[in-house]
Design a protein that fits this description.
It is built from 13 helices and 4 strands. The chain is α+β, with helices and mostly antiparallel strands.
Amino acid sequence: MDWTKKVSRFMPNWKREAEVRNLVTGYKVYGNPFSTSTRRVLAVLLEKGLSYESITVDLKSGEHKTESFLSLNPFGQIPVFVDGNIKLHESRAITQYIAYVHSTRGTQLLYLQSHETMAILTVWMEIEARQFDPFASKLTWEQAIKPIYGLETDQEVVRENEARLEKVLDVYEKRLGKYRFLACNTFTLADLHHLPNIQYLLGTPTKRLFEDRPKVRKWVGEITSRDAWKMACDHEKYWFGKQTK
């Protein structure tokens, strides 16, 4: 039996109920279109062709630390994803929830043919979160976000984190010499989770770290050219255009 069918047998009722809720009311996403974590969630919604309402959280004014927002996420961070009575935070947890609930719709972002493939997908999602993201996020902050707020980039922090990121990308280069994507030969959450930071870094000098590695360069080109990702980056249409007037 297909592994996805085995897994779905555990919670078939709530999956059906969640799918119906989305068809009737859609989802709500509290976040900011320039946030890497918010973009990560948008990318999955768009890969799945799901309806949603975007609700902008004003980070500059500290709205994410207000009592009303803390009732959604006590840690005061975006995004927050609302599905009826279910309120989720942590972008990677949200993407997995959406991908599982809608596993038969849109792009198949999971790799659940067997327990082995599920484990491989999980490993590469963990690698993104624990090996890639810490350095990529610091580089994004220093080179792409700080200038927006009129802050000076710390070049020493950039040098340190580029050196660390290079080691991670060396591992990716070897992996991508064997597979088209990180977890397997099809696009999955393991690849999608990288997109927000990569997109920002392609507009900075750190771009060279991706371009200097042929397999990584090809992979980056393929994942950043996906239609759903291009839509996720179109703030006017796919964020502000999704807000309730």
